[in-house]
Every structure is written in structure tokens, then in C-alpha cells.
């Protein structure tokens, strides 16, 4: 009689238990595991040196705190994800609308007026709004004799100093004024349409992609234009 060796048989020829329950604990110590270990510790303790009550309470307190912190972290992560989803939903509604953001550049579409806001902290005189090409070449200067403290709206119709139409594109904008007896540069905010929204990763938040101006954080938006 010949006996064949089974070492070369495929594992597929052996019966396997398809109903095997996977280990869902992944090595994590659950509350039941902790109390089982604590019970074993009490059962096998040295009768002459029993565990003190304060030691037992300390162990239970430490585990409860660790378990509570773990649960808190899980809940906070879920809350953060929910907040991020809500923010993303709100930001997506901005696509196609114009938003006001701080910028030293503005976009001229060739059709619509380019609009912006200058925020003066105090009364200003001899205000000059300079429109320049990307290479610094002067296109137009808008002069305003006097402006009260507060927000001042301005528009550019896309023409140069000779009243000639400029091509669509991105232009630099610079503002300076006399405030308190000194000539100072003044920050500018411009309106630009939102082309898309990017969802940040690793806690970077949500980014709005503006036509011609690039990416801006949602927190940078000062105003939303619904007109």
C-alpha cells in the first residue's frame, strides 16, 4: 500500500471555517478586560499584603480617565468632521458670486467694472489710486481730494490715462494718501468672483479659488456680493 504525502496539498483543499468571528478589539483593552484583570489581581494577591483601597481606586480612576479621554477624542473628531462638512457646504454656495478680499491686485474682465473698497482709519487728503500693469507700468491714476474716515468704494472702468480701453487681465492697485500730516500707503480690498472651492487636508481648512487672483482662505473674505 502506498501512502501519499500531504505536504504539497494546497490550502484550498482543507475545510476552513467561514463563520469565524473576526477579532474586533484589535488589541485594545476594553472596560470588561480591565475589570477581569482587576478581579484576577485581587484573587491572586498576597493575603498578607492585600491591595490597599486607595491603590484600587487609583487604578480604576486612571482607567476611567483614559477611557473618557479616548471617547472625548473620538467625539471631538466627529464634531470637527461635521463642522468641516457644514463649512464646505456653505463655501460651495459661493461659487459664481463675488467676494471682497484684501489684495494688491484686481481683475478687469473687459466687460464689468472693477470694484474695490479702501478702508481709511482716519480722514485722508490727496488720495491717489494707481492702476498698474503687472510689470509696474502706470495705466491710470484716480485722484480724490478728500475722504472721510471709513470705507470708500471705488470703481475702475478699464481705461488708461488717455481714455483708451485696456485688455482684460490682472492689474496691480496701489493707494496712498495723506493722513495725519504724513503720506501713507493704504491697504485695498477688491471684489473677485469665486470659480471653485478646495477642501483642505490635514486641518488646512477651506480655500476659495478666485478668478485671476488665486487661492484665498475662507476667513479672508470680508464681504459677499449678492448683486
Automatic annotation (TrEMBL):
It is found in: Bacterial flagellum basal body. The keyword NAD does not apply. It holds the Pfam family FlgD. Residues 108-179 form the FlgD/Vpr Ig-like domain. Residues 86-222 form the FlgD Tudor-like domain. Keywords: Bacterial flagellum, Bacterial flagellum biogenesis, Cell projection, Cilium, Flagellum. GO terms for biological process: bacterial-type flagellum organization. One of its GO terms (cellular component) is bacterial-type flagellum basal body. The keyword Cell cycle does not apply. Gene3D superfamilies: 2.30.30.910, 2.60.40.4070. Belongs to the FlgD family. Required for flagellar hook formation. May act as a scaffolding protein. This is Basal-body rod modification protein FlgD. It comes from Alkalimonas amylolytica.
Amino acid at each position: 500500500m502506498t501512502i501519499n504525502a500531504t505536504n504539497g496539498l494546497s490550502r484550498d483543499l482543507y475545510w476552513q471555517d467561514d463563520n469565524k468571528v473576526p477579532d474586533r478589539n484589535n488589541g485594545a483593552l476594553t472596560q470588561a478586560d480591565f475589570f477581569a484583570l482587576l478581579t484576577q489581581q485581587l484573587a491572586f494577591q498576597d493575603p498578607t499584603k492585600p491591595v490597599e483601597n486607595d491603590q484600587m481606586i487609583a487604578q480604576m480612576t486612571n482607567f476611567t480617565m483614559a477611557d473618557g479621554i479616548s471617547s472625548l477624542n473620538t467625539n471631538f473628531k466627529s464634531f470637527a468632521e461635521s463642522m468641516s462638512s457644514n463649512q464646505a457646504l456653505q463655501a460651495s454656495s459661493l461659487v459664481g458670486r463675488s467676494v471682497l478680499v484684501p489684495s494688491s491686485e484686481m481683475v478687469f474682465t473687459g466687460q464689468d467694472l472693477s470694484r474695490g473698497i479702501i478702508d481709511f482709519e482716519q480722514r485722508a487728503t490727496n488720495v491717489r489710486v494707481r492702476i498698474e500693469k503687472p510689470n509696474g507700468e502706470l495705466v491710470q491714476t484716480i485722484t480724490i481730494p478728500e475722504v472721510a474716515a471709513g470705507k470708500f468704494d471705488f470703481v475702475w472702468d478699464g481705461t488708461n490715462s488717455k481714455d483708451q480701453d485696456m485688455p482684460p487681465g490682472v492689474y496691480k492697485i496701489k493707494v496712498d494718501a495723506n493722513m495725519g500730516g504724513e503720506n501713507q500707503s493704504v491697504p485695498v480690498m477688491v471684489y473677485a468672483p469665486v470659480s471653485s472651492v478646495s477642501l483642505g487636508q490635514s486641518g488646512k481648512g477651506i480655500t476659495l479659488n478666485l478668478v485671476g487672483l488665486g487661492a484665498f482662505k475662507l476667513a479672508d473674505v470680508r464681504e459677499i456680493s449678492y448683486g
